[in-house]
Design goal:
The protein has 83 residues and is mostly beta strands. It has 1 helix and 6 strands. 14% of the residues are buried.
Length: 83
Amino acid sequence: MKIRAHAESHVVELDDGSQWQIFPGDLATTLSWKPETDLHLEQSGDRVSSHVLVNGADQSRVRVIAAGEAWPDGEVEKALKGG
């Protein structure tokens, strides 16, 4: 899938119309994304996110949840602290 819109740093819209919130600790990974970046969506076994977006070029991964959903209580802070 390609990126349709990435106007807000923490939300990306893919060309299939789906919108995903990017985990705050993974935002730096998205700085190099361009509209032609090929992304693959995979389910995640992570407690923090429901899915991951994988960059086809370098295999980097960012944790995401559907736009409009809330991150699990306490999990974001815990993950950012390395716990």
